[in-house]
Amino acid sequence: MFANIGGLIDLSPLTLPNGGYYAGSFFDYPPKSFSLLFNICGYATRCNSLGNNTKNTNAESCAFYQNDDTAPPMGYIDKSELFEIKNGVSLSYYGGKNGTAQFKIYCDPRHIIEHL
């Protein structure tokens, strides 16, 4: 749950229990293709056992590069920001050496189509 000027924004219903994760794949993404594993407001424990990871990263997200068997963390729960955007929220996780994980969650899916 994140504090907001107007109250609280509760994203906990989107959190997958027991370290579960959502996944998305980015093919033909320069410099190489990868899969992004992430959880909302919770750890993605699968990131701990992917690639050459040998320790518990407690990452919210990681990018799995299958070609070179690496899965660097892309952000952590304790380094996060939440902002209201038109028709939704923007959730960012920082702290990964290879970038930031940013998610825009819209209340109305039609909003996405309007901005493509």
Commentary on this structure:
The protein has 116 residues and is mainly β. It has one domain: Cation-dependent Mannose-6-phosphate Receptor, Chain A. The protein has one helix at 110-114; strands at 2-4, 7-9, 22-26, 34-38, 61-64, 73-85, 88-96, 99-106. It has a 6-stranded antiparallel beta sheet with strand order 3-4-5-6-7-8, with no helix packed on it. It has a two-stranded antiparallel ribbon with strand order 1-2. A hairpin with a 2-residue loop joins strand 7 and strand 8 (99-106). The longest helix is centred in the C-terminal third of the chain and has 5 residues, at 110-114. The mean pLDDT is 78. InterPro entries: Man6P_isomerase_rcpt-bd_dom_sf.
Number of helices: 1
Helix-and-strand structural type? mainly beta
Helix content: under 10%
The coarse overall form would be globular
Residue-averaged pLDDT: 78
Strand order of the largest sheet: 3-4-5-6-7-8
Could you state the CATH homologous superfamily?
Mannose-6-phosphate receptor binding domain
Number of domains: 1
Oligomer: single chain
As a whole number of angstroms, the C-alpha radius of gyration is 15 Å
N-to-C span: 29 Å
CATH architecture: Distorted Sandwich
Low-confidence stretches: none
Kindly estimate the percentage of residues that lie in beta strands according to DSSP.
Answer: 35-45%
Top CATH class = Mainly Beta
Number of strands: 8
Order of helices and strands: EEEEEEEEH
- The CATH topology turns out to be Cation-dependent Mannose-6-phosphate Receptor, Chain A
Instruction: Summarize the biggest pleated sheet.
Output: 6 strands, antiparallel
